[in-house]
Amino acid sequence: MKRASFVVLGLLFAFACKRAEQTTSTTQSTTTVSTSTTATPPQPAPMTPVPATTSSAPAPAAPAGVIASTEADQGGVRIDITELKRSSGGTVNLKFVITNNGDKYFSTAGERLADKETGSDYRSVSGIHLVDPVNKKKYFVVRDSDKNCLCSQDVADVKEGGGRVTLWAKFPAPPPEVQKITIQIPHFQPIDDVTISQ
C-alpha cells in the first residue's frame, strides 16, 4: 500500500514539474516574441524619387488667333491657320501664315504650293484645297474669268531662321450644314476637322 502511494505521489510530482516547465517555456517564448516585436520598429517603405520633368507637361499654347496648325515635310516649317470663314458670294476665305524655323529657306517656286495643272500659277498657293469628308467632295481655289486663282501669287521664298509670310486663298463654300472641313496643302500634313466660322 505504501509503495503504491509513493508511486502515485511520484507521478503527481513528475506531472507537476512537467507542467511548470511548459508554462515557463511558453511565457519565455511569448516574452521573446513580444520583445523582438518591440525591438524592431516597422521600417518605412522606400521612397521613389520623383523625376524633375514629366512627359505629361502641357503642350505649348498656339499663338493668339491660330485655329489650327500643321508641319511641312521640310523640317522646321509650319503653317498656322488664322481664319477659315464664310463670306459673301458663296465663298470661304482661308488665311494662314508660313513660318520657317528651319536652317534652310522654304521654296515656293514651281509646283511647291501651286496647282501643277496650271502654268500661270507659278509661285501661288492654288494647290491648296478643302475636303468635305461627309459629302466626299473636294473644293479647289476659285478662279476668275482669265483662269487666275483668287489666292496669294508671286509668293517669295520663306527665309530660314524665323522667316514668315502671310497668305490667303478663296474657295467655293460647302453647304451650310458642313461645319468642319479638312484643309490639304501640298507638302504639309492634312489638317482635319477645322471649323468654318460664319
Write up what this structure looks like:
The protein is α+β, with helices and mostly antiparallel strands. The protein folds into two domains: 1-34; 68-195, Sandwich (Immunoglobulin-like). The chain contains one helix and eight strands. It has one helix spanning 2-39, and strands at residues 68-71, 77-87, 91-100, 129-132, 137-140, 163-172, 180-184, 191-195. The strands form two sheets. The protein has a four-stranded antiparallel β-sheet with strand order 1-2-3-6, with no helix packed on it. It is globular. The protein starts with a helix and ends with a strand. Mean pLDDT is 78; it is low at 23-41 and 47-61.
Bin the strand percentage: 25-35%
Distance between the termini: 124 Å
CATH level 1 name of the largest domain: Mainly Beta
Describe the largest sheet: 4 strands, antiparallel
**Please, how many domains?**
2
Number of strands: 8
CATH architecture of the largest domain: Sandwich
How much is the radius of gyration in Å?
42 Å
Strand order of the largest sheet: 1-2-3-6
Characterize the quaternary organization of these chains: single chain
What is the H/E string?
HEEEEEEEE
Name the poorly predicted regions: 23-41, 47-61
Number of helices: 1
Can you give the mean pLDDT? 78
Q: What name does the CATH topology of the largest domain carry?
A: Immunoglobulin-like
Fraction in helix = 10-25%
Helical/strand content category: alpha+beta
Task: Please state the overall shape, judged from the principal axes of the Cα atoms.
Answer: globular
